[in-house]
Amino acid sequence: MDLDLDVARIEKALRVIDPLFLDTPQYIDEQLCRALGRTVTVKLETANPVRSFKGRGADLMLSSLPRGARVVCASSGNFGQAVAYAGRARGIAVEVFVPETVNPAKRERIEAFGARIILAGTDGSQARAAAATHAGRHPDLVYLQDGLQAAVAEGAGTIGVELTRVPGHHYDAVVLPVGDGALINGVARWMKTHAPCTRIVGVNAMGAPSMLHSLRAGRAVCLDRVDTFADGIAVRAPLDASVRRAMALVDEIVLVTDEELADAMALAAHTLGILLEPAGVAGLAAIAGGSVEGDHLATVLTGANPRPQQLHELVPRLAHLFDPASRVRGEVR
After folding, report:
1. N or C: which end of the chain has fewer CB within 10 A?
2. Span 47-82, pLDDT tens digits
3. How many Å apart are CA 8 and CA 14, to the nearest integer?
4. 157-206 pLDDT per residue, tens
5. In what order do the strands lie in the sheet with 70-74?
6. Quick check: 53 and 283 in contact, CB under 8 A?
7. Which residues contact 84 (CB under 8 A, 6 or more apart)?
8. 3-state secondary structure of 25
9. Residues near 144 by beta carbon (within 8 Å), at least 6 away in sequence
């Protein structure tokens, strides 16, 4: 497979990445499986300082830089947290460009990790353009782009290593949220070598189907606009490198509505006791909605920084789930 992602480097990354990001819980929850009507292994990428999988790739990437280096990136929040945390731990100064609409909780956490925040534009694409311009004016800066550098995706690929470590494991499909593509491409690179019969299914929000359109077109497609409350996967313009990798590695992209994402947030809170942001439950939403075939599926739950208005969506849904009369197999709302 002619790709810039390397399975040997993914395996080596397990010896480089800060251990606090590794060996996250993965298990089968009977209550969740009853609700979904099939076996689903969940992997929890929330119990770490940045509350998402992104610490893996950010820490691996920054491990290659010398102390005293300076980096800049753009982020809707979670990648910025990861780079900020890894930078502080490794003695690297970090600047993060974020859209003006950034989740306030994510902004606060980025700043708490010691990074400098720069507000730029109203969406991720505009923040990324501003970061690129800034990096061009300061050649001493290392410009990181989520989904571009191979090390970022290879760090995420260590999730695939951990999924396949389980003796006798077999997944019909691994279902993953798709934003900038580092997660799905990294995991898929490992799985295609070590579990080639497992299908790799990505999930876009219905209001931000940029990767779906890109794979159909065979090139990166920039959407005119995105319309979803799942800001972690609200990508208007995926990177060429990310699309190229996904074309070789991803079997299918499916879509979920904001309503399905909110339902999945409630389902995760009810059955697993985990409070997730909408992007973090995209895989679970696709499974619950019947968009993915298979008797045994796996998904990654990642991103525990919901906005207050997203939490408001949970109240009626949780009340419904806790109502004994509504506990029918397959019923999420």
Report:
1. N
2. 999 999 999 999 999 999 999 999 999 998 999 999
3. 10
4. 999 999 999 887 799 999 999 999 999 999 999 999 999 999 999 999 99
5. 116-119, 93-98, 70-74, 142-144
6. no
7. 94, 96, 109, 110, 113, 114, 115
8. coil
9. 58, 61, 71, 72, 73, 83, 152
